[in-house]
Structure formats: structure tokens, C-alpha cells
Specification:
3 helices; single chain; 76% helix; mainly alpha
Length: 51
């Protein structure tokens, strides 16, 4: 069974928010920060560090 990445992330995110109940500001900061870092000059550095 092939599950799209966006669907898997949505399910894991919804379960994480429901089970751990982090503050909404923290969720917003992590989402916005991840989006901004992914489109910055640091993206290639992070990509090589992850691999």
C-alpha cells in the first residue's frame, strides 16, 4: 500500500497534537520555521547533514 507523504505527515501531526497537546504557538513556530529554513541558504547544509 502506497501512502502519500503529505497524508502520512498529516496523520502523524494530528495524532501528535491530540496526544501531547503542545501550545498552538509552538506548532505555528515549528511549521513556519521549517518552511522558512527549507527555502533558505541553509537547506543544502541541512540536506547533507541528514544524509
Amino acid at each position: 500500500m502506497d501512502v502519500p507523504l503529505w497524508l502520512a505527515l498529516l496523520v502523524v501531526g494530528a495524532l501528535g497534537i491530540k496526544l501531547f497537546r503542545p501550545p498552538l504557538w509552538l506548532v505555528a513556530v515549528l511549521l513556519l520555521g521549517g518552511y522558512l529554513i527549507a527555502d533558505s541558504l541553509l537547506a543544502p547544509v541541512i540536506e547533507t547533514a541528514i544524509k
